[in-house]
Design brief:
InterPro entries (chains A, B): Homeodomain-like_sf, HTH-type_TetR-like_transc_reg, HTH_TetR, Tet_transcr_reg_TetR-rel_C_sf, TetR_C
CATH architecture of the largest domain in chain A: Orthogonal Bundle
Oligomer: homodimer
Radius of gyration of chain A: 20 Å
GO molecular function, one term (chains A, B): DNA-binding transcription factor activity
Organism (chains A, B): Yinghuangia soli
Low-confidence stretches of chain A: none
Pfam families (chains A, B): TetR_C_38
Strand content of chain A: under 5%
Distance between the termini of chain A: 47 Å
Protein name (chains A, B): TetR/AcrR family transcriptional regulator
Shape of chain A: elongated
Largest sheet of chain A: none
DNA sequence: CATCCGATCTGACTGATCGTCAGATTTCTG
DNA sequence: CAGAAATCTGACGATCAGTCAGATCGGATG
């Protein structure tokens, strides 16, 4: 799957090439930490990496492609979120703990990759399928996990015509992603993340079980 | 508040000037509908408006400032969302209907201003205070409305140490904004908006009342 | 209607970045 | 160390940002 690293013109990159490429990616990521996406210039990234713009274009089609690369690595790391939906039952006290773990996992993950996820979100919303795919690869795992959990709960209960499990799961995941992506915003405002965590956990729990969490 | 329209160098714009300015804003908005934010060029906007780049810079500092202008108009329109949290009680069947109305209001609003909201979201997350303020002016009204609703419900009930009302409200609003902003994404995927609406309404209702909605 | 004047627009320019390519430089191989 | 392969870069044409002085427009005046 993860084929060898190649240059734009298809040659396989050697040791030195890989190092340069990686350095460019690192610098790009740092750049995104500090500058608005719209203002990230190839020339700045190259300068920071101590190389020339031409070198950048040897390894990447354009800035977007390079970010996509970083995003792919991130998505690989993101697969660990999947585990947070599996294994434990979702009812009762253990269920609420599971909800809390899921929430914390999201918050941490988003905090770590915040600038990249911003770009991924934008590009996805703008219809770029490559980025949409990356975003989905992170969210899908969690969404399907939650979908199964909801289906299980609904099967157990007398279950009338409930909310569609996958819609509820998708909504919960979108909520988690959104709040995670605006952590700074919340804190700049009058809302403490300390209070947001239980709010999220409660909504996740209620979305899955349909009940108020136990105290 | 809404002072006269001024050029960059402080002169008050007359009829012709206002028309030109508006045309530029319209073209910019159309541009954002079709091109990625990062690719929107002043020169293209000017060309589309049948004028020259120099004219653009007569009315706007840069592309961001112009978008901010559009965003401000949008925010003004967005104040109508406030009404959706007021007036009706949130308990029982009427409460669920209110939740549905709120959800629909959000979905419609976001659909209408999608490309602008994308940029507002990004710029806010990137720390641009001007855009953050616009975003807040839309969300705050709704958030405070919901906060009051939750406080009211909690006061009525025996209310132990519940979730912080403003955190819950902020979370619900973030959820609504997120899902609204990814409507296309949901549909491209396997989730129907037809199913998402009740999921959202249910979460809103449960977040406020702590109970499952009545059937 | 001719003239004038402020409002408005634009051609033209400088500087910055993009994206490319041929050729220089470095590293590897034997 | 020579030769080949890999890697890097200076330099270039094209595009866009942003500025300014001067051209044009449109209404007011006599």
């Amino acid at each position: 799957m993860t084929g060898q690293v190649r240059t734009v013109d298809g040659r396989v990159a050697g040791r030195r090439g890989q190092a340069t490429r990686q350095k460019l990616l690192d610098c790009l990521r740092e750049m995104l930490d500090t500058s608005p996406y719209r203002d990230v210039k190839v020339i700045d990234v190259a300068r920071m990496a101590g190389t020339s713009p031409a070198t950048f274009y040897q390894y990447f089609q354009d800035v977007e492609s390079a970010i996509l690369e970083i995003a792919n690595d991130m998505a690989k790391d993101g697969q660990r979120l999947k585990a947070l939906t599996e294994g434990q039952g979702w009812t009762g006290k253990g269920g609420y703990a599971a909800a809390e773990a899921l929430v914390d996992g999201f918050l941490d993950f988003w905090r770590e990759y915040e600038p990249i996820l911003r770009v991924v979100d934008l590009a996805s919303a703008e219809g770029d399928k490559r980025f949409y795919k990356v975003r989905q690869s992170i969210l899908t795992a969690v969404t399907t996990g939650l979908t199964e959990a909801i289906e299980e709960v609904q099967a157990k209960g007398k279950a009338g015509d409930e909310v569609a499990p996958n819609a509820m799961a998708g909504t919960l995941v979108a909520m988690l992603a959104a709040v995670s992506g605006h952590q700074k915003g919340f804190e700049t405002w009058k809302i403490k993340m300390k209070d947001v965590r239980p709010a999220l956990s409660t909504l996740v729990f209620m979305g899955i079980t349909g009940k108020k969490p136990p105290r």
